[in-house]
Design goal:
Blueprint lengths: L6 E4 L5 H10 L1 E4 L8 H7 L5 E4 L7 H5 L6 E4 L9 H6 L3 E3 L6 H16 L2 H9 L20 E5 L3 H14 L2 E5 L6 H7 L1 E3 L2 H7 L2 E4 L13 H4 L7 E4 L8 H9 L5 E4 L10 H5 L3 E3 L8 H21 L9 H4 L4
Parallel strand pairs: 1-2, 1-3, 3-4, 4-5, 6-7, 6-9, 7-8, 9-10, 10-11, 11-12
Helix pairs in contact: 1-13, 5-7
The protein binds glyoxylic acid.
The site of glyoxylic acid (GLV) has 6 residues, from loops.
Length: 332
């Protein structure tokens, strides 16, 4: 008798070739129509499934786990995993995986692109041109902030932060300062030409401050009104980390009243909703959470998430586990 394939759910639309690979190992139910399910609907779809392929938009928490007793693994197609309540997953013996590494350089590229677009007022000036308002050259037209030779501040110095530091230091001759929960070793600091500073010094000194820290309760509103007022009035703020790390309402006020010069945001509190005041201020560049979005990188992320499901469910070993302690614990 042919053994039955394990049942999994792919909770969002994904590359057909990745789905085809999953199909060879599992009985797959997929959401190729990309319907945005409520938590109740997700729980319903998960009945009888041992694995799920998620993106950052499906919350996996104690309430979901309580009604999905057969679930063993959740593979997130994202490096961030704040949609997972990892403690609840560990307590339930459910493995979580993410997709680190494969998106580092692409995301660092985008962080730099957003910094450039923000400092050099690219989006704002393009809107002006498209509106037919360009009728002459002017000495101060869209004069922005200098990038080369300026001070690049990085809050959160993991792989992506280091990638941005390298681009700034080696490509643009920037002076790099950073703040992180823990200081990097000397060799990595030297490679990134980065100097560890306190958060206060980072805020006060950076000409361009890039946020690349993970979201958690402790990083919620890490940049709010108080922090914004510590920054230079000429500074730019770039958030490619997670919505909620910046207090978006406070940022909109700071952009309106000139507390800082400009911001570039790829992530938002409550996205895909965007704070309405951010939509009306000119000195902000807004992108829809696309920092890792190149064809090649998104495909690599999807393959890694799929390989985590295959590795764990077929061989008992995941490539990039978040809570590996469940691997050694008794299966639930
Ligand atoms: C995207 O935001 C990711 O976490 O991969």
């Amino acid at each position: 008798m042919i053994p039955k394939k394990p049942k999994i759910l792919v909770a969002r639309a994904v590359f057909p070739e990745v789905l085809a690979k999953l199909d060879t190992h599992f009985e797959v139910q997929s959401n190729q129509d990309d319907v945005l399910w409520t938590p109740e609907k997700l729980a319903q779809q998960l009945q009888g499934k041992v694995g799920v392929f998620t993106t950052g938009s499906q919350r996996v928490d104690a309430a979901l786990l309580a009604v999905c007793p057969e679930l063993k693994v959740c593979a997130n197609m994202a490096v961030g995993f704040n949609n997972f309540d990892l403690a609840a997953m560990t307590a339930a013996g459910v493995l979580g995986t993410n997709t680190p590494g494969v998106l580092t350089e692409t995301t660092a590229d985008f962080g730099f692109a957003l910094l450039m677009a923000t400092a050099r007022r690219i989006a704002e000036s393009e809107r002006f041109l498209r509106a037919g308002l360009w009728n002459r050259w002017r000495y101060d037209m869209f004069a922005g902030g200098e990038v080369h030779g300026s001070t690049l501040g990085i809050l959160g110095m993991g792989r992506i932060g280091q990638g941005i530091a390298q681009r700034g230091a080696h490509g643009f001759g920037m002076k790099v300062i950073y703040h992180n929960r823990s200081r990097l070793d000397e060799a990595t600091e030297a490679q990134c030409k980065a100097r560890f500073v306190s958060k206060d010094e980072l805020l006060a000194q950076a000409d361009h401050l890039v946020l690349v820290l993970p979201y958690s309760e402790s990083s919620h509103h890490a940049i709010g009104q108080a922090e914004l007022s510590q920054m230079k009035p000429t500074a730019t703020l770039i958030n490619i980390a997670r919505g909620g790390i910046v207090d978006d309402a406070a940022l909109a006020v700071a952009l309106k009243n000139g507390t800082i010069a400009a911001a570039g945001l790829d992530v938002f509190e409550g996205e895909p909703q965007v704070h309405p005041d951010l939509l009306t201020v000119p000195n902000v560049v807004l992108t829809p959470h696309i920092a890792s979005a190149t064809q090649a990188t998104r495909l690599a992320m999807a393959h890694l998430a799929a390989d985590n499901l295959i590795g764990f469910l077929c061989r008992g070993k995941a490539l990039t586990p978040l809570n590996p302690e469940v691997l050694s614990a008794t299966c639930r």
